[in-house]
Amino acid sequence: MIKIEIKEEIFAANDQVASRNLDLLNGMGIFSINIMASPGAGKTSLIEATVKNLAAEFRLAVIDGDIATSLDAERAEKAGALSVQINTGGQCHLDAGMIQAALAALPLNQVDLLIVENVGNLVCPASFKLGTHKNILVASIPEGDDKPHKYPGMYQGTDILIINKIDLLPYIPFRMEFFQAGVQALNPGVRTFPLSCLKKDGLESWIAWLKDEIKLAKTKKGA
Ligand code: MG
Ligand code: ZN
Predict the structure, then answer these.
(1) Ligand 2: centre distance to CA 200 (Å)
(2) Has residue 221 got a pLDDT over 90?
(3) Ligand 2 center to residue 169 CA distance, Å?
(4) I need a surface site. Which of 15, 91, 180, 221 has the fewest CB within 10 A?
């Protein structure tokens, strides 16, 4: 009997394309992030706020992944970024091949920061490498404090944690200690930015971190 481990083959093929994407971005000196979250956590609002804060100083591109519509790419473009919309036609995550196609459609010599907005989903996006430099997970207060406990893969696989909608803390029974205990068990010491995109509160340290990374990527260009 011949058995094929489909899952491993898919991941291996995806990883190969992801590493080519990363080589391309490194060669151009572009810093890139992969933003993941459940639907409604505020990925697009974070992207809008980020683009508005950086557009005067840097050239930005956004690759937006959604099952349908181009609403989010339109918002990114309106905020001041180049944008590419990927409609996955039902697939619940982006993969490296989709990013490869989107990169080919962008004028990369005019880009300093590439932001990828993954499909809203707390399960599989963390399993598919895209070739971006850092994974960013956006949690939000209304989702509840149990999410790290229930979706460990996403919390383990992230480089940065953003806690959005902190302005709602007085109105929602969210136990920050319980949430943080889950995070620390899975991803000890993960860099965390609590903020509110709506109230424009706490964005400064996130923006400062991005600026440092963009500048660092430029100095390493082609290395
Ligand atoms: Mg969105
Ligand atoms: Zn998926």
Answers:
(1) 31
(2) no
(3) 30
(4) 221
Phi-psi region of 131 (alpha: psi -120 to 50; beta: other; left: phi over 0): left
* Stretch 169-173: mean pLDDT: 97
Single pTM value for the model: 0.94
Give me ligand 1 centre to Cα 223, in Å.
33
For the cut 90, the answer to whether the pLDDT of residue 194 exceeds it is: yes
In the reported structure, the alpha carbon of residue 133 is separated from the centroid of ligand 2 by a whole-number distance in angstroms of 20
Ligand at minimal distance from the CA of 94 is 2
Angstrom distance (rounded) from CA 14 to CA 55: 32
CA 76 to ligand 1 centroid distance, Å: 10
